[in-house]
Specification:
The complex is a heterodimer of chains A (640) and B (204). Chain A has 8 helices and 42 strands. With 640 residues, chain A is mostly beta strands. In chain A, the strands form 10 sheets. Chain A has a 6-stranded mixed sheet with strand order 8-9-10-11-16-15, with helices on one face. In chain A, strands 33, 34, 35, 37 and 40 form a 5-stranded mixed sheet that branches. Chain A starts with a helix and ends in a 16-residue tail after the last strand. Chain B has 204 residues and is α+β, with helices and mostly antiparallel strands. Chain B has 6 helices and 5 strands. In chain B, β1 and β2 form a beta hairpin. In chain B, α2 packs antiparallel against α4 and α2 runs antiparallel to α6. The longest helix of chain B is centred in the middle third of the chain and has 31 residues. Chain B starts with a helix and ends in a 6-residue tail after the last helix. The chains are: A mainly beta (640), B alpha+beta (204).
């Protein structure tokens, strides 16, 4: 750390600290206008957020559920939780992780850590087809199909990559979902090297996961091996920057041990500018080598693919303006956000305006690319954009959100900040409606706070997170509502409701499952050796067959079809003592396979309330004990 | 004798054209429901719909409502409503074809007799069809399974208008197809009256 850098940092901290101290003197309530004005504000906020029973919200909010492994869907402006989409963890409420298909998808894992949902885009705007989410823990990506709000693919664990944090961010037309390793490891995964050799034997990895434009199916594209930085967050370009992605990094010190100290020594880490198109072309041309089954590129072997630019300090957020021109980097320990200009970046690349290189990756001259250091406040993390030319940055340390003008960048950086609103407390990500697209809707911002610190009815020591809805129309910001969100929201996507076109039932005609049945008379039990296969018919309010007789030790495969075509008419199949619960949506067929290891009689029943006769919707699995002279199953097809 | 010669009177050119025009109603009626049954309940604010065409049954909501109605009806032990059980759906399209031929006959041969035949037969056919339909409703509502989970007193679903059955408000109304057939019948009667005024029976 040079003395010049120290001075600069202090220069930036001081005025902001003074500002905060000044604000601290005044109460956080409305400064003037008294009780009457406050009541008027409350009334207005109530009217803005009240959605009459039976009426629909204007926006869908998809927020990540962190280490719950789920994605949550809420309506905005009411902030009402509408549903939970299980992704990386079993969820008996929808039978997720119990049927053969989702069980296979989850594999050996029972949890994941969802951070950054990314809606598929066309021309840089949400197209409402899929939602891609990352698993920070087990290096996976998942695709939720927004036609039915179901997780349809879990991709990974991705080779070589460890700690998939800087993900999922999709390119302008959903060509790729991007992945970055937060934790560097010796690659391929599974290789051992002592921590003492961290700087040389450990590597970071950036990946491009290819997305099929018609089906959304993910497959491995390419990887770039990097020095052992901790890659943090990413953003994808649009228009002039459409071939590019940026990733922030920390621990460019290549430190180990107590990182909060050891990785906070340099005043600036890097933000990487990566030409993903060039990476894809180089991989297609056979450059690099295969590691862990993936084509891995070395930056020094593909000139023009990757550049580093300094970014202060302990960087976190990396975001790109709607028009694709400006990159905003937030540093957790800096009192300002750094704004870079892609036009200047291209010039610097052309002029080879570097200050050196880091392990063969050119480091561009900071001053040539940076156009502003906007003093937004303490602990700036993430930036979102609206439709009016404003940017919004979350301030973790300050527990606030800053609103600032995205230019003109003419040296009057502090004049760009126009408003600040306190949040409760310690905000992480924020999301503006369409805030990471070509055409944001603006209007609302949601601040996803890490701590709620007792602002709710006391529920004991494990406290919920809080999310606050903030009106961002006009030049100011106004907090409208607060909701307590499931642990733990990271990033979210806020999308106008009409962008999505979900179905309400699975049309019978589209069910191509060979085991689907649509008439009670087709419900049957077939035995082949010691495999018993059952086609089970479910409809209000019965199962056919209602008795399934097997021998102890048999392999049992049950295909349950919900023959309903009426919306919200779900049926469940819970099998007592066998740890099985399926839920079939109308028109859906699900399969469960298990071994009848315990003899006895086990009831099964409809677990998802369906009708007045729901309680009667039940049957028996009869398991004859081994050696009891059990004959082949002759269970009858039960009538109504 | 005078009636016979009255029946031999030739229709006016305008009446022949009108008969031909009315005949197209018979064809168009095939493409629209003859009867519509809609059931509302608190949890079905959008209604469950059943449209009865000359030759098919179509549930609302992309067809799903037919199964929905049958699922609800099975709780009271009602026989499944299915097109195969409606013999009307075989004879009505055939009959409409026959009536279309009879309108051609009336337009081409253009005797008063042709118009009278057509009108009388059609009115009879209409009354018969409505009667059969009523009987079908009666049968559905009265042949309830004694094993039904919910025992209700036998009833006849409304042929026309509104009835409250359990938690449902049931509305039964003629469809556009029936309106067209009724217009056809009314047209024939009107023509008969007009032609009879032009050639009064008494004058012969």
């Amino acid at each position: 750390m040079t003395s010049k850098e120290t001075v600069m940092t202090l220069r930036h901290w001081l005025p902001v600290a003074a500002l905060v101290a000044g604000a601290g003197c005044a109460p956080s309530k409305a400064p003037s206008g008294g009780q009457g004005a406050k009541l008027a504000d409350v009334r207005e906020a109530a009217l803005r957020t009240y959605v009459e029973p039976g009426k629909l919200d204007e926006y869908y909010l998809f927020y990540s559920g962190g280490h719950s492994g789920n994605v949550y869907v809420a309506g905005v402006p009411s902030m009402r939780h509408i549903m939970t989409i299980p992704v990386f963890a079993p969820y008996p409420a929808t039978g997720y992780g119990f049927d053969a298909e989702t069980k296979h998808m989850l594999g050996q894992y029972t949890w994941g850590d969802v951070h950054h949902p990314a809606m598929s885009k066309t021309k840089g705007d949400y197209d409402g087809r899929w939602l891609f989410v990352n698993d920070n823990a087990n290096n996976r990506l998942a695709r939720i199909d927004l036609r039915d709000f179901k997780t349809r693919q879990i991709f990974g664990p991705i080779a070589n990559s460890s700690g998939n944090h800087g993900s999922a961010f999709v390119t302008e037309n959903t060509e790729y979902a991007l992945v970055a390793s937060r934790f560097s490891i010796p690659i391929p995964r599974g290789r051992y090297a002592p921590l003492a050799k961290y700087a040389t034997q450990y590597h970071g990895v950036l990946s491009g996961v290819q997305i099929d434009g018609a089906t959304g199916t993910m497959s491995m594209g390419w990887q770039i091996v990097t020095p052992p930085f901790d890659w943090d967050l990413a953003a994808t370009g649009r228009e002039i920057s459409r071939d590019w992605a940026v990733w922030s990094s920390y621990n460019t010190e290549r430190a180990t041990g107590r990182l909060e100290v050891t990785a906070s020594q340099r005043d600036r880490d890097y933000i990487a500018f990566v030409n993903w198109k060039k990476a894809a072309e180089a991989a297609a041309a056979g450059k690099g080598k295969i590691i862990g089954g993936v084509r891995v590129l070395e930056p020094r072997e593909v000139p023009g693919m990757m550049y580093l630019v300094p970014l202060a300090k302990s960087p976190h957020g990396a975001d790109i303006s709607p028009d694709g021109r400006f990159v905003v980097g937030g540093g957790k320990l800096a009192p300002y956000v750094t704004v870079y200009d892609f036009e200047k970046f291209f010039k610097a690349v052309e002029a080879n305006d570097t200050t050196g290189s880091d392990e063969g990756i050119p480091v561009l001259r900071y001053e040539s690319i940076r156009v502003a250091e906007v003093p937004v406040g303490l602990g700036p993390l993430h930036t979102q954009f609206d439709d009016q030319g404003y940017a919004y940055t979350s301030l973790f340390v300050e527990s606030a959100v800053a609103k600032w003008k995205l230019g003109p960048f003419d040296g009057h950086d502090s004049a760009l900040v126009v408003a600040k609103v306190p949040v409760h407390f310690s905000v992480g990500h924020i999301v503006v409606a369409g805030g990471d697209t070509r055409h944001p809707w603006g209007k609302y911002l949601i601040s996803m706070n890490k701590l709620s610190k007792g602002r709710h009815l006391n529920v004991g020591p494990s406290q919920p997170e809080s999310s606050e809805l903030i009106d961002i129309t006009g030049t100011g910001m106004k907090t409208l509502y607060e909701a307590y969100t499931e642990p733990e929201p990271h990033f979210a996507q806020l999308v106008k409701a009409d962008v999505l076109r979900p179905i309400e039932v699975y049309p019978k005609a589209e069910n191509k499952n060979p085991n689907a049945i649509w008439a009670a008379s087709d419900g049957k039990i077939t035995r082949r050796g010691n495999v018993v296969e059952v086609k089970l018919y479910s409809i209000r309010s019965y199962f056919t067959p209602h008795a399934i007789e097997v021998n102890q030790g048999d392999s049992v495969i049950i295909h349950v079809t919900n023959a309903e075509q009426e919306r919200d008419m779900l049926h469940g199949f819970g099998l007592a003592s066998y740890n099985i619960n399926l839920v079939m949506d109308p028109g859906e067929t699900k399969t469960v396979a298990f071994r009848a290891k315990d003899a006895g009689v086990y009831p099964f029943y409809c677990t998802n309330f369906c009708s007045a006769m729901h309680q009667e919707m039940q049957g028996y699995l009869l398991v004859k004990p081994r050696g009891a002279g059990a004959s082949a199953s002759a269970a009858q097809s039960g009538g109504r | 004798m005078s009636l016979t010669s009255w029946l031999e009177q030739v229709l006016s050119p305008r009446a022949r054209l009108a008969v031909l025009g009315a005949g197209t109603f018979l064809v168009i009626a095939l493409f629209f429901p003859l009867w519509q049954i809609t059931m509302f309940a608190n949890q079905f604010p959008e209604g469950i719909r059943l449209s009865i065409y000359a030759y098919k049954l179509v549930g609302g909501n992309g067809g799903a409502d037919l199964q929905g109605i049958n699922i609800l009806n099975h709780y009271i032990g009602m026989h499944e409503i299915q097109a195969a059980d409606f013999v009307e759906m075989k004879f009505i399209p055939f009959a409409l074809g026959v009536f279309f031929l009879l309108t051609l006959r009336a337009a081409v041969f253009a005797k008063m007799r042709d118009l009278v035949d057509l009108t009388v037969l059609f009115v009879y056919f209409s009354a018969f069809s409505v009667g059969v339909f009523w009987y079908r409703m009666y049968t559905y509502g009265h042949q309830l399974s004694p094993e039904a989970p919910i025992k209700v007193a036998p009833f006849t679903p409304p042929l026309l208008g509104h009835q409250h059955i359990a938690n449902f408000d049931v509305y039964s109304t003629p469809g556009l197809g029936t309106v067209l057939l009724a217009a056809f019948a009314l047209g024939l009667v009107t023509l008969l009256v007009l032609e009879a005024r032009r050639n009064p029976l008494a004058r012969l």
